[in-house]
Amino acid sequence: MKNASFSVIVPTFNVQSYVVKALDSIFEQDYNNYEVIIVDDASTDNTAQKIEEYIALHDNKHIKFIKCEINRGLSTVREEGLKFAKNEWILFLDSDDRYKEGLFRELNEVIQNNPDINIIEFNFDWVYEDTKHKRVAYNNRGESGIRKSSEENIMTALAVWNKCFKRDFLENLNLPPIPRTILDDAPLTVCALLAAKYFYWLDFIGYDYVQRDNSLSKKISMYSRAFHSVAFIKKELERLKIYDEIQFEVISLRLLSSNLRRYNDSLEYENFYNECRKIFRSFDLKKDIKTPIAYNYKFYKRVCLYPRWLFKLRIKISQSLQRLRENCPKFYRS
Questions:
Q1: How far apart are CA 49 and CA 32, in angstroms?
Q2: 185-213, pLDDT tens digit by residue?
């Protein structure tokens, strides 16, 4: 069987200080059956110039470079890149992150041995730009292996960038364009995961997820986008005829709780917290639920039971402990 072919879609926007390292992490892979599709979302800095210089310097025919005339948003830019993809498997690399050495080789080995899988998920490091520390995302996922995605409890990240998707599987999902009013990653990840017949967990740290203070996700409010995402996902699961009420409640909990952890003192947050409490109290969730999207039972109970001031206190304590861990190298695996 011939080696798997990958199309790597790299959306860029104002990442002049990061994009070269991101591209290097692709072209330094010990693998050569791939293409790179860069879509620049009307950057206002020197990102496009950096990319053009990189292509010229490397004389690299693996790269397709598309420049958008107006800013369209991350999801739309990814969709644009997908139109140009020719290879069998799709990867998404955020342009301020990096691949680990050997990722493509590891993915190819999985594909050679498991021709029926639709999605491969791999592990990643959280990399803190200011402290240079790292921590592994998943330490207890178990050995690499294939799972039936509709039957087993898959502890999965909702991001698209630590996954490899079969292209014809994504095309058959036929998701509508994802508007800017909803979250960028979750709708695609959730719908694909629940629609997949087979899912493969690869116990390999293949990605550096770089945490920087001025990233887009740190600047914009996610609260209304989270609510809109829940509604979008429900509609699409019903269209795909894979809607399940319990699974949907867990998905809603996962999406909303991730934004509850983004604590701030605004009135918007107070309203968001109160609305989440109402929604969570309507759920009938138990510890032993089996679903492809993981959820935190203790967190769910705290939101249902705690007034906002107590929840706020717990969040502040949690954030303080997290900062302590980030500044103590012994808590991180190099």
A1: 25
A2: 999 999 999 899 889 999 999 999 998 76
Cα 220 to Cα 209: distance, rounded to the nearest angstrom: 19
What the chain holds in terms of domains, given with CATH numbers, is: 6-219 (3.90.550.10), 223-331 (no CATH)
If we measure between CA atoms, which residue out of 127, 107, 119 comes closest to residue 150?
A: 119
Take residue 98 and report the two structure tokens written for it: 């990096």
Token pair listed for 2: 């011939």
DSSP reduced 3-state for 193: helix
Considering only CA atoms, which of 79, 93, 76 is closest in space to residue 34? Answer: 93
Instruction: Determine how many CB atoms are found less than 10 A away from the CB of residue 45.
Output: 12
pTM over 0.90: no
- Beta carbons within 8 Å of 289's beta carbon, 6+ residues apart: 246, 250, 295
Residue 292 has pLDDT above 60, yes or no: yes
What would the two tokens of residue 218 be?
A: 């740190």
